[in-house]
Structures are given as structure tokens and as C-alpha cells.
Amino acid sequence: MSRQRRTFLSLAAVAGGVAALRGLLFGASANAAQSTDAVYEVTHSDAEWRKLLTPTQYSVLRKAGTEYPFSSPLDHEKRAGIFSCAGCALPLFSSRTKFDSGTGWPSFWAPLENAVLKKRDITLGMVRDEVLCRRCGGHLGHVFEDGPKPTGLRYCMNGIAMNFAAGADMPRQSKITLPVYDSKGKMT
């Protein structure tokens, strides 16, 4: 292979990596914009969302950006309570389903009932399931199949997309079945 061709291929690979990283960190992919054909209970114009949210929340919730790993205090939150959408206050996750995934983002093995929607995401050269707030359509993160029992799922969420209420009661609509373990650590 000629030296020019190798140089061109190397530069193309670097440019592709930079574009992928930019999309991962700042939501700059073609699939990142919120769907305009979906109808949600809570809707606002783009200008209204910009006024309601901080610039980082807007980037994540409305443009499918990603916060930097290990940057959210919610990743280390260990108190009992409820995590809700920063865009519309819908309860999303219970602290009872939160676990330390070591990824740098708050992770849960299950959402509250009727709290989130999943949408296929094929950006960055991979197939993933994007997680959206059911009520406002805000981008929360992605769900992966490498989580703990009982679901085997890891809802990897952007902390900036959520608020936390310590000691909050479980919403009435949630019906999470928590696992029961015996003395040997086996689920019964």
C-alpha cells in the first residue's frame, strides 16, 4: 500500500474517532435530535426548553448529549429516594434499583413502571437502546444487557438529566418486585 494511501486512511480513522467522540460527549450526531413526530405529555418550544434547563441539561435532555463520566454527584448517591426527570419531574428510578456499575454514570437495574421509553440508537457505529423520559421525551442515557440480577440490565443514565429526592416515597404507579436472597446469596 502506498504511503499516501496509508496516511489518508490514518487521517480518516482519526477524523472518524474525533466525530464519534464529539457525538458521544456533545450529542452531535444525526440521530441525536429529539424526534419531532413523537407527541409527549410535556412539550415546550426549543426556546422554552433553553430557558427551563441549564446549558448542560439542555445538551443532554434535548440534544442527546452525554455528560462526562464521574462528573455527576448522583453517581455516588446512596440515600433512599427517587430519581426524577430534570425536564418534567416524572419519577424515573428508585434508589432500591441503583447499583455501582463502575462506569461513572448512575446505573439502575430497572426503571419505575411506565417511566421510560426505549428507542433504537445506531449512532457511533453500534446498536444500542436509548432511554427517554416517557412524559417529555428527554434523553436520559442508554440501557445495556450487562447489569446485575434480577433483570440483567444496566440503565446507564446521565445524572444531569435527573433530580434526586432523598427519602421520597415510591410513586403509586410503580410496581417493582425486589429480589429476595437467601443466606448464601442466591435469589429465591
Keywords for this entry:
188 residues; alpha+beta; six-stranded antiparallel β-sheet; three-stranded antiparallel β-sheet; 3 helices; 9 strands; 21% strand; globular; disordered C terminus
Describe this structure in words.
- The chain is α+β, with helices and mostly antiparallel strands and 188 residues long.
- Helix content is 21%, strand content 21%.
- The chain contains three helices and nine strands.
- The strands form two sheets. A six-stranded antiparallel beta sheet has the order 3-4-8-7-6-5.
- Strand 3 and strand 4 form a beta hairpin.
- It is globular, with a radius of gyration of 19 Å.
- The model is unreliable at 5-36 and 173-188 (pLDDT under 50).
Query: Mean pLDDT score, rounded?
Result: 80
Strand share of the residues?
15-25%
Alpha-beta content class: alpha+beta
Number-wise, the strands total: 9
Q: Choose one word for the global shape.
A: globular
Strand order of the largest sheet: 3-4-8-7-6-5
Q: N-to-C SSE series?
A: HHHEEEEEEEEE
Number of helices: 3
**Helical amount:** 10-25%
Rg calculated over all Cα atoms: 19 Å
How far the N terminus sits from the C terminus, by CA atoms, comes to: 60 Å
The major sheet is characterized as: 6 strands, antiparallel
Give unreliable regions as ranges: 5-36, 173-188
Short structural description:
By secondary structure, the protein is an alpha+beta fold. It contains three helices and nine strands.
